[in-house]
């Protein structure tokens, strides 16, 4: 707890909600924003989900993100919540906002990925991916917005280069991430009058825990012809989490005060090819 320490930086004094904050890019966004003076509400499910083949985060992961934020003398309020549960999201965000005294931005970052060819993709794959990536992102926006419509704010919804490219072998994921774009643009139109900005971020591949073995097997064995679609134009196989966090920081900060409805690619050119 670091109440009273005067924040400095590009996000000084901002109070920011981040979902999927326990590890990977969510943790990186939290640390980068804390470095620049933000206080944070950190949400994660902190348990694995049936139907998702790789493990999700643990409570220790979320506590470690909070520790890293507090090292920068910023506040971190942690909440273990499934973003699919709209009531629980509203309660957690309301409580976090009350503790911080307001909310200036939300980063809807939590997401999941299933892999498979078109003929092995099941309705259950669709349900879990759309439920988390699209409805969960909506629940995050809906929980944050009542705290923003009076004084303005910034919603940053994490999509993917896959949405722009039409990346195969995870069709529900690609569709859900394009759904996030439609939702964000419609919200951007509806909320512009309230000075609430809504933008999407589109990362290329980043090395995180989101690594389903079956995707690598499909690319290696069943559909190696599709592997080039995953290659970046620039000579880097994967970018780093901080490369995405720097885009998030810009969109949270007042540097982007008239930027809304943007699809912000951080994709090393993967969508150019
Ligand atoms: N890693 C990549 O290559 C890549 C590329 C483009 C976009 N993205 C997107 O970036 C975002 C972050 O992904 P990451 O790579 O850090 O993955 P990750 O799996 O390491 O982190 C995702 C976090 O979200 C949490 N989470 C998942 N379902 C949740 C739920 N229902 N409720 C609350 N929390 C939940 C997980 O526990 C985990 O901590 C995701 O939206 C992902 O789709 C990732």
In percent, how helical is the residue content?
25-40%
The CATH C-level class name: Alpha Beta
CATH fold-level topology: Rossmann fold
Query: First CA to last CA: what distance?
Result: 47 Å
Strands in their spatial order, largest beta sheet: 3-2-1-4-5-6-7
Largest sheet: 7 strands, parallel
What is the helix tally?
8
Whole-angstrom Rg: 18 Å
In N-to-C order, the SSE pattern is EHEHEHEHEHHEHHE
Count of folded domains = 1
Could you say which overall geometry the principal axes of the C-alpha atoms support?
A: globular
Q: How many β-strand stretches?
A: 7
3D structure, described in words:
The chain is α/β, with parallel strands linked by helices and 273 residues long. The chain has one domain (15-266): 3-Layer(aba) Sandwich (Rossmann fold), CATH 3.40.50.720. The protein has helices spanning 24-35, 59-70, 86-100, 123-144, 161-165, 171-191, 213-222, 241-252, and strands at residues 15-19, 39-44, 76-80, 105-108, 153-158, 196-203, 263-266. The chain has a seven-stranded parallel β-sheet, sandwiched between helices. Strand 1, helix 1 and strand 2 form a beta-alpha-beta unit. Helix 1 (24-35) packs parallel to helix 2 (59-70), helix 1 (24-35) crosses helix 8 and helix 4 runs parallel beside helix 6 (171-191). It starts with 14 loop residues before the first strand and ends in a 7-residue tail after the last strand. It binds nicotinamide-adenine-dinucleotide. Nicotinamide-adenine-dinucleotide binds at residues 19-20, 22-26, 44-45, 56-57, 82-84, 109-112, 132, 136, 158, 160, 203, 205-206, 208-210.
